[in-house]
Amino acid sequence: MGKGNGVKAGRFELWSEAGASNPSYRIQNSTFKRAMDLFIAVPVVIFVSPLLMFIYALLKVFDPGPAMFAQVRIGRDGQPFTVYKFRTMRVDAEQRLQQVLASDPLAAAEWAKYQKLRNDPRVTLLGRILRKSSLDELPQLLNILRGEMSVIGPRPVTAEEVSRYGSDYPFYIAARPGVLGLWQVKGRNKLTYPERVAFDVQYIKTWSVWQDFKIIGMAIPVVLLGLGAY
């Protein structure tokens, strides 16, 4: 690594030397993309506000505990931010996960490959419905309004997942993470983690406004039919 590379306090630093000569990094400064995010997100927030309140009320009534799930993820330029979702897991989710991974070798292998479980004991009944319909992602509209996320982009990952990107990490942090991503319309949870990374990198390398609209169009049947969601 050259000078200035590494980890700064409170953030993961952009590898400037890797991005300086790469034209795909123009996505960082795309004011048009940001304007498009707001053009889409603002009316959608207004339209779905009653639905957001209804889901929030359902969670408070039928699933005691916090209705919202908040977690720190890594965003553009390696800047940490808090992502919001409706809570779909039980309050003791982490303990349940560790118990399953320790007692079920098949589940442990599935988790190692996908970082997901098809029959996840942590997910509540209402949570399964929200996940299948992708309604649990709606609170991320707030992240878009705050400028932390985009409508389309790499899916936001945790600090622990950064190492899985390896030398491709500079591509991941070249853009705001997205509520929708290329790998979600190319296989979603059926993809292995390396395949998801490859699609994130492909998105950055080939980014265009047309591609964003194409992904939105492809996402409609994926979301409506719950393809690859669990």
Overview in brief:
With 230 residues, the protein is mainly alpha-helical.
What percent strand? 5-15%
- How does the helix and strand content classify structurally? mainly alpha
Q: Kindly state the mean pLDDT as a whole number?
A: 81
Order of H and E elements? EEHHEEHHHHEHEHH
Structure description:
- The chain has 230 residues and is mostly helical.
- It is built from nine helices and six strands, in the order ββααββααααβαβαα.
- A two-stranded antiparallel sheet has the order 1-2. Strands 3-4 form a two-stranded antiparallel ribbon. Strands 5-6 form a two-stranded parallel sheet.
- The protein is globular.
- The N terminus is likely disordered.
